Amino acid sequence: MPAASFRLIMRTGPNPGLVFDLTKEVTVLGRDVSNDIVLGDAEVSRTHARLTRTPGGYVLEDLGSTNGSFVKGERLAAPRVLNPGDLVGFGENITLTFDAVSPEAAATIMGPAAKPMAPAAKPAYAPPPRPVAAPVAAMPAAAPEAEVAPRRSRKWMLAGCGCLALLAVCGGVLWFMPAGWWCTLLTPLTWFGYNFSC
After folding, report:
1. How far is it, in rounded angstroms, from Cα 61 to Cα 71?
2. The pTM is what?
3. What domain count does the chain have?
4. Which is higher by pLDDT, 189 or 61?
5. Which of 94, 110, 126 delimits the end of a domain?
């Protein structure tokens, strides 16, 4: 009897319901397009985790990701064997279910249809096809924006802190300045007719 095959089914994330069949001995998951399974979310590291098929089942290993990998809500500290039905998380936004598919179920699902379906009749009038734009890769565009936004806010935050520090220094100097200095600073006003006593 052939062994069961395994798959991951996305529960939450950019494409809920998307199925990833695990056919390789080693499967790498992450945000980068060079991975075996691409998870398009900013919380996922470029190479986030690795699934390795062993005689005991698939083993999930976190590859030092920033936001972590989770099995049943527990953050992975070491490689862990997955069991069918386990809920696997990557970062805060993506969860997948680890599922086993028996060969009989796969044959039932993948089996040929008993009767081929006849093609649908064409309508009398078909609207002209709309021009199709070239597909735009969403992942490379999303990652730089996420990295640029914190730099802008950090720049404005530093400028604001610098202005506040300058105002505090000027206020401190004026507050603790000896009384005789006020007369020296305000002497030019007497040229315009302002009289004051020091």
Report:
1. 11
2. 0.51
3. 2
4. 61
5. 110
What's the pLDDT score for residue 198? 65
User: Are the beta carbons of 49 and 22 closer than 8 angstroms?
Assistant: no
Residue 14, token pair as written in the block: 């950019």
Cβ-contact 102, 109 below 8 angstroms: no
How far apart are the C-alpha atoms of 184 and 186, rounded to whole Å?
A: 6
For the segment 124-136, what is each residue's pLDDT rounded down to a tens digit?
A: 555 566 666 666 5
What confidence tens digit (pLDDT) does each residue in 6-33 have? 999 999 988 899 999 999 999 999 999 9
Residue at which a domain ends, from 71, 92, 110: 110
Return the structure tokens found at 79: 């490689």
The pLDDT of residue 2? 52
Q: Same domain for 106 and 180?
A: no
Domain residues for 23? 5-110
Number of H helices, E strands in the chain: 3, 11
DSSP sequence for 58-75: EEEEE-S-SS-EEETTEE
Buried b (16+ CB within 10 A) or exposed e, 70-98: bbeeeebeeebebeeebebbbbeebbbeb
Together in a domain, 106 and 62 = yes
Whether 62 and 98 map to the same domain: the answer is yes
Q: Which amino acid is at 108?
A: T
